[in-house]
Amino acid sequence: RTMSSTTVPPSPALLQPLNVPYRLLLGPGPSNVPPRIQAAGAQQVIGHMHPEMFQIMDDIKKGIQYAFQTQNPLTIAVSGSGHCAMETALFNVVEKGDVVLIGVKGIWGERAADIAERIGAEVHLLTKPPGEAFTLKDVEKGLSEHKPSLFFITHGESSSGVVQPLDGFGELCHRYNCLLLVDSVASLGGAPIFMDKQGIDILYSGSQKVLNAPPGTAPISFSEAASKKMFSRKTKPPSLYVDMSWLANYWGCDGKPRTYHHTGPITNFFTLREGLAILAEKELRLPTVTTVSVPVGYEWKDIITYLMKNHSIEITGGLGPSAGKVFRIGLMGYNSTQANVDRVLDALRDALKHCPKSKI
Ligand code: PMP
After folding, report:
1. 207 lines ligand 1 (CB under 6 A)
2. PTM N6-(pyridoxal phosphate)lysine: at which residues (predicted)?
């Protein structure tokens, strides 16, 4: 045997075709990836420093600013899962010896405390039984007792199914000279959150939950106050990979030409961009009146008349500039039920089968 001959044989299983079963993913993440996002992931890779890639990263930044409702220039996606964003927040903003207060009402507070301990921070826990949320009074007590420089809280506590109300928390923390760090991995896009209005200093999320992109990227944003603390620290952050001075440059946030830091997950950036684009499109939809494009080849009036005559359902056509282009379907209060959604969809299906369709 020569030195160059292999001694480890190829695995027979590996030589079989890739087999991924279809699963309906109704757990707390990942969620199923819609075809449009799958298609984005099937695109050919380009270089991580190509101008087109920087444009896509700029689009992502804009998408996150919209999703977070923030104007923070320091808004990026880290190359990793939700935990990576969690570490990015804590590794950059917290230094050894800093006092931090962690709201624990499930596993995510425990994880944040673990990370903060690894940095050598003085960690205090504010705990609530799983299933409950913190009140402003609870938090004020912790702030006045421990005088932390950072308070961590989870918005969507996926381990207990509780959403944490956030109004007033930013203002309260700032009164105590404390930064507010919020985990919205499980909630962003599904429960309202307003980073700037709610005074959140650091907010992060994940790609594989409501955004429906594959796991592997995580949006994060820092307020001016958080940036100030982060960029005036005495020591380097313990991780080079998530050092925000480097990442700010990679994401074009520091006004300097971008230089190589690491090779970003290019394909995941494509998919994250599409997830954010879909969210931006969805959020413009009025929940009480759903507009549906009139299918090509049909007369809008035929369908409306068919629904009324055969299903006793009223829906209407467009109005003004949307006349002839859309149907308008109202789902208001008492009428806003799953059963009515199913009924109108069945009726529309029936109408498409029976109304005249022009050949085009
Ligand atoms: N925070 C919350 C609220 C989560 O639900 C999760 C994922 N279940 C995480 C953080 C960690 O995210 P990841 O698994 O992407 O690292």
Report:
1. no
2. 209
Q: Residue 186 C-alpha to ligand 1 middle, in angstroms?
A: 7
Establish whether residue 215 lines the binding site of ligand 1, counting it when its CB lies within 6 angstroms of any ligand atom.
yes
What are the residue boundaries of the structural domains of the chain, listed by start? 35-280, 289-354
CATH of 35-280, one of 3.20.20.140, 2.40.10.220, 3.40.50.2300, 3.40.640.10: 3.40.640.10
Beta carbons of 247 and 37 less than 8 angstroms apart: no
What does R_g of the chain's alpha carbons equal in angstroms? 25
Domain 289-354 CATH class label? alpha beta
Instruction: Indicate if ligand 1 lies below 6 Å from the C-beta of 106.
Output: no
* 328 in a known ligand binding site: yes
Q: Distances from the Cα of 253 to the Cαs of 58, 250, 274, in angstroms?
A: 10, 8, 21
| pLDDT tens-digit map of 285-298 | 888 999 999 999 99
Are β-strands 156-157 and 202-204 bridged in parallel, bridged antiparallel, or unpaired?
unpaired
Q: What does pTM read for this prediction?
A: 0.88
Q: What integer best gives the mean pLDDT of the chain?
A: 96
Q: From residue 341, how far is each of 83, 290, 331, 352, 354 by CA, in Å?
A: 38, 11, 8, 17, 20
Q: Is the CB of 268 under 6 A from ligand 1?
A: no
Kindly report, residue by residue over 80-133, the tens digit of the pLDDT.
Answer: 999 999 999 999 999 999 999 999 999 999 999 999 999 999 999 999 998 999
Decide if 87 contacts 200 (C-beta within 8 A).
Answer: no
Rounded to the nearest angstrom, the distance between the alpha carbon of 78 and the centre of ligand 1 is: 14
Name the residue at shortest CA distance from atom 1 of ligand 1: 185
- Give the residue, out of 108, 164, 203, 242, with the most ligand 1 atoms within 8 A of its beta carbon, to mutate for a pocket test: 108
